[in-house]
Amino acid sequence: MQPWRVKHMSGERSIILLNGMPGSGTSDLCQNIVNELHFDHSIEHLATSEIIRAIGRSSIDSYYQRQVQNHLNSPQSRLPINRKLMYDIMSEALSRLDAVDLLLVNGYPQHIDQVEDLYELAMLDDRSLCGLIITEASEKVAIKRLTRQASSGHGKVMSEYEAEQLVQYYKSTYPAVGIELRKRKMPIEIINTMAPNPDTTDHAIQAINYMISPGDNTRPHDD
User: Fold this and answer.
1) Which end of the chain is least crowded, N or C, by CB within 10 Å?
2) What's the whole-model pTM score?
3) Listing from the earlier edge strand, what are the strands of the sheet with 14-20?
4) Total number of domains constituting the chain
């Protein structure tokens, strides 16, 4: 694979958002980017679902542990945490990663109300929101992948019905998020992850290069 390098603009700390239908491979893509991207400064993958599970297991200290555990033990455990609590969790997570130059934020914002929260969080943390990468897969593929994964915090395989619920929730909320981010002139790149391969990661890294330093790079696949 081609060695990629992003030259970070002096003094800037950046956020790249990654999101997609549950089961579309966003987390795997994030990890591949971290493994392959040769960055002049530090890079981390901030996965909101992983943070929530870690707080629930007491793997990381959090002021919001009891609230998270109450959610994970409720009948609504597979649905997103409420807006206020998610804002607080993200604020806490950003504080823990204060020394990181480039954050790949996976799974936030999940609905339109959180877009304003995201911009506020980035401003308070003195970070630039540089772009959004959306992973794209068919519902059939996404549901098949989800039913093979362990559920959040319960250690059981997800049923097809539960997977379908997650996919339908995403379809009912995330399009409005994308529209709002486009209105705010955020660069957006869609990446097909139906059959992930090295080119998928290359495509994402090209997009990140462009989003962070558009004057020095072309958009992916531009001639």
Assistant:
1) C
2) 0.87
3) 43-47, 102-106, 14-20, 128-136, 188-192
4) 1
Q: Is 89 exposed, middle or buried (0-12, 13-18, 19+ CB in 10 A)?
A: buried
Is residue 30 a contact partner of residue 207, using CB atoms and an 8 Å limit? no
CATH number of the domain to which 39 belongs: 3.40.50.300
**How far is the C-alpha of 94 from the C-alpha of 21, rounded, in Å?**
24
CA 162 to chain CA centroid, Å, is 21
Residues paired with 19 in a beta bridge: 134
Q: What is the spatial distance between Cα 57 and Cα 59, in angstroms, rounded to a whole number?
A: 5
Q: 28 lies in a domain?
A: yes
- Apex 184 CA angle, 182 and 186, nearest 5: 60
Q: Is residue 223 part of a domain?
A: no
Q: How many CB atoms lie within 10 A of CB 91?
A: 15
pLDDT (tens, 9 = 90+) of the chain, 223 residues, equals 344 455 554 457 999 999 999 999 999 999 999 988 877 778 999 999 899 999 999 999 999 999 999 999 998 887 789 999 999 999 999 999 999 999 999 999 998 999 999 999 999 999 999 999 999 999 999 998 888 865 444 445 688 988 898 899 899 999 999 999 999 999 999 999 887 676 889 999 999 999 998 876 666 754 4
Q: Of all helices (H) and strands (E), which one includes residue 169?
A: helix 160-183
**Is residue 39 within 8 Å of residue 101, measured between CB atoms?**
yes
